[in-house]
Amino acid sequence: MSLPVDQVVRQQRFIREHPEWSIRCQDGATRFIAEKGDSPDCQVVAALSLRELLNRLDEIVAAQ
User: Fold this and answer.
1) If 52 and its partner were Cys, which of 15, 21, 27, 47 is the partner (CB 3.0–4.6 Å)?
2) Rounded Cα gap, residues 57 and 47, in angstroms
């Protein structure tokens, strides 16, 4: 499954701005998981789509 270019660009921008997060796909890029492991308290965020995941990560980063 091919992802929309705007989502891929958004993902790359997020990772550049927040290198403490890693994003990986599962199930042929239909589901995505992000992990932040820069401390003993690892954060994991899962979403059905890359767009949903990035929206949630933006909320998390803004709240910090």
Assistant:
1) 47
2) 10
Supply the pTM of this predicted model: 0.79
- Concatenated DSSP letters for 1-60? -PPPHHHHHHHHHHHHH-TTEEEEEETTTTEEEEEE-SSSS-EEEEESSHHHHHHHHHHH
pLDDT for residue 38 = 67
Largest CA distance in the chain: 35
30-63 tens-digit pLDDT: 899 999 976 677 788 888 899 999 999 999 999 9
